[in-house]
Amino acid sequence: MAVPCTIATNQGAATLQGLQCIVERLFNYIIPFAGMAAFVVLIAGGFQYLTAGGDPKKVQQAQGVITGAIIGIIVTLAVYLIFRLLGLITGLDLLRFEIPG
Length: 101
Prior knowledge:
Layout: E1 9-10, E2 13-14, H1 16-50, H2 56-90
Antiparallel strand pairs: 1-2
């Protein structure tokens, strides 16, 4: 049975359930945030490309930004899909962090 996600203390000392809450929240926020950040960088790279004005250095720099953003999106999706695939193979929900209590 899952323990509600509250940081429990024992006379001022942190417990393992507190760590469980922190890791669970990180999993819930980091992967979507990474995807959104890569998308914003992709938009910024597109804007740089449009405003390069034909300058080869600026065009090359914008293409580098766009390439990096696309790689970031692919890596973010790959991490999520690998976690889901491993979950299907092992039967464990790897995106849900739980410390047995």
